[in-house]
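Page 42, continued from yesterday. The earlier attempt failed because a stray header line got pasted into the input along with the sequence. Redoing it now with the clean sequence only.
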Amino acid sequence: MQITSEFLHEQLKTFFGFNSFKGPQEEIIVHLINGGDAFVLMPTGGGKSLCYQLPALVMDGTAIIISPLIALMKNQVDAIRGFVEERDGIAHFLNSSLTKAQLQEVRDDLLAGNTKLLYVAPESLTKEENIQLLKQIKISFYAVDEAHCISEWGHDFRPEYRRINPIVKEIGIAPIIALTATATPKVQHDIQKNLDMLGARVFKSSFNRPNLYYEIRPKVNIDKEIIKFIKANQGKSGIIYCLSRKKVEDVAELLVVNGIKALPYHAGLDANTRAANQDKFLMEEADVIVATIAFGMGIDKPDVRFVIHYDIPKSLEGYYQETGRSGRDGGEGQCVAFYSYKDIQKLEKFMQGKLISEQEIGKHLLMETVSYAESNLCRRKVLMNYFGEDYTQDNCGSCDNCLYPKKQFEGKEYVLLVLDLISGMKEQFKAEHIANILAGVNNSIIKSYNHHHHELFGIGSAKGIRFWMAVIRQALIHHLIDKDIEKYGLLSCTEKGIKFLEAPTSIMLTEDREFLDSDEGDEVVTPGSKAGGGGGDAALLSMLKDLRSSMSKRLNLPPFVIFNDPSLEDMSIQYPVTLDELKNCQGVGEGKAKKFGKDFIDLISKYVAENEIDRPLDLVVKSVVNKSINKVFIITSIDRKLSFEDIADAKNMEMNDLLDEIESIVNSGTKLNIDYYIRQTVDDDKVDDIYEYFKTEASTDSLKEAVDELGRNYTEEEIRLVRIKFISEIGN
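This time it went through. Structure tokens are written below.
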């Protein structure tokens, strides 16, 4: 089919109202019309959908658009019908949401040749009656949208997508166009191989979205931080992504209570509610959608001004695609993600029970996300490197790491050690293993390979694992080493790396960001300067920790029983000078404020006066009524000695969420007696050991430290239960 450029421009103007094509759109469309297979890798907002919509409208027959989400199909069918007036039959979708009458209408329009685009879910494509129907019509081409769903290495793997190729062959061969916004070289190959289109022409646009600002914040006082952020961006459209449906509901409710027009969106809502919420967001009746990753694929809202990740995503592909939903019109797009390593540990737990190969892939993708979050390198550089593209500028000027760069250091000797070790190990080990050897970590895996006797074992022990992981990541970005994704991340030296070994040159590196609580006092701080972790006053935080330390010795209590670190960090942000203000700080509550608070507010009052600190205007975050009711219910249920399982069931909570609530109650100063439940679930000897650990050995209330110290014989849940008992009895 011979189509002129002039004709295509006319059709573009007629159907879509555009005067010119964007990027490689015209080239892709011409290639497809001429019968060629195409693989299109184009960032969100680059105009992927037009690459199959326009050819479908001008070619003979019906284009089959395979799409993963019902919401996406409805949105695009409505859009096409809007472009072509008085021809509703021109576009249809075929999925499980249709009634019998609607199905018949779709069949009639298809067989009459009225339909140019048929959107179909992969699950519907596999049904025998649909295969037989599609065999009766002329297919112009197949478009596989969100093609990353094909690959188990993608962020949204869908097994049904891997059955597309045999079904296409059964229905009838036609050109294929596969489209995605996120694919590493490995994922791209996986997609093309599965669709039997290795010979397809690849159209790859740059992954750089220059209008987006990227920032990672520590997950401290997150609810207050998000409300402050949204109120500072009043009236702007935004999306908040959460990993669980429950968190979506909780956050949406919290925003509404605090005067923000927000709505939830997740797969657990009925189809009508989901569609209504989506439409309200598109029509600007709501400013913010709080959603799981189910929201946003193909949603054509160009003026989303911010995307917030309440929970860090499971992969960089997911992160990139979700952030890409902001600023699609080329205007402002702020992308803020809140990061805590505890979230990573939760995600690792969720993988347990899956096939070992799936766990390996999942962990590998997760560690790439950790690397991105903790890195001090330009965020664009890290993201684009991950997708196989080089970003050559030293400073992008639009990410937190470039705006607030960390001091660099000469890294030549460190890089040489890494390259030397990888090369000497015959390129058979992953980054964590190499870092563990250099840092001198004598774990079971190191011992199993006898690497604790290696000549380089512990040579960099003064620096620690995090330092060596940072060196490895930067060596990857400098192309001195390579990572074999198919072999779950085995490292090898590149040709450039081998040359560096032979003739080393200067190479400047930066250390990773530190998200952990730290008591190190080697940093010079001044009144009002910001603490690295929670954004508070570093000098005040140091003084509060000293006060807590002296009080713990005087009262013979572990420091964390008085106030834990997040509470002190919040005090260094809020500057509370009355007990009423203090009890609103994170994890304090009325009981603790009365019992331990006076010395702290005295110190803060004096500090504020002496240093002429402007205290922040109080942003009082209103809590959701249900949460208060939940707390009352939990307290009364424990008084009645109900089992925790029954309490959790009554409130439709997971056991982990219930323990979070109980910890919050106890940390705020309320005394709870849970001995009856501990007696049923934990051996007496274990109770004594755990209690003694927190009483005499623990310097913090860290669960991870307790698990490491107490060993495998103690489960995390057992330690949490006894920790609750300990804090309740000793601190309250």
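Notes: The chain has five domains: 5-204, 212-403, 408-510, 517-621, 625-731.
Reminder to self: strip header lines before submitting.
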